[in-house]
Design goal:
7% helix, 36% strand, 2 domains, mainly beta, ten-stranded antiparallel beta sheet
Length: 183
């Protein structure tokens, strides 16, 4: 559902947003609460940083296809924004800015999963709010891509690249509805 986009926010609201039990003990430094806005342990924080934060908008769905790549290789999934992959909402834990996913594919040429996105703000400052990305396709299966095996690069204008070594076959990202969930 997400936290209010303006006005007062309670610590209890933050706790229930991350699936905590209302009225139970919680602190701003709890990892799940910090994770809503991508803060590290012990970092300086202010309640207004949680405006609009959500634990549930880290999911996007797209329809994959096969695209020809360089030198006879193939890209499975969405390549070069065709069709558009999707956008995660502003104020969520997606680096705290509107994140537009431009590519999510498996490249047979480099045997890697590759994810590209841009930020509306032009700043990609936090790439650590998530620990894994689960990619699922109905009737085919799913793969879990851990952040610990991911190489992350940020570029100017809020452009970010996440790349993982192969843990699955690329054809599983072929034609059909694919759901990606960051957690």
């Amino acid at each position: 559902m997400g936290l209010p986009t303006s006005g007062a926010i309670s610590l209890n609201q933050m706790h229930t947003e991350v699936s905590g039990t209302s009225g139970t003990q919680v602190s701003l430094n709890d990892s799940d609460v910090r994770g809503l806005i991508g803060k590290s342990s012990g970092a300086q924080m202010s309640f207004n940083e949680w405006h609009g934060a959500s634990a549930t908008d880290r999911v996007f769905t797209f329809t994959g296809a096969t695209h020809s790549g360089a030198k006879g290789s193939y890209h499975y999934g969405v390549h070069n924004s065709s069709p558009s992959v999707g956008t995660m909402a502003s104020g969520s834990s997606d680096w705290n800015k509107t994140l537009t996913i431009t590519q999510m594919h498996f490249s047979s040429a480099v045997n890697k999963y590759i994810f590209y996105a841009t930020h509306a703000s032009g700043v990609a400052s936090n790439t650590t709010w998530w620990t894994k990305l689960v990619i699922s396709r109905y009737m085919v299966g799913s793969v879990t891509l851990e952040r610990s095996t991911c190489s992350v690069q940020t570029y100017g204008s809020g452009y970010i690249s996440l790349q993982w070594p192969s843990e699955w076959t690329g054809s599983n990202l072929g034609a059909g509805a694919i759901t990606c969930t960051f957690s």
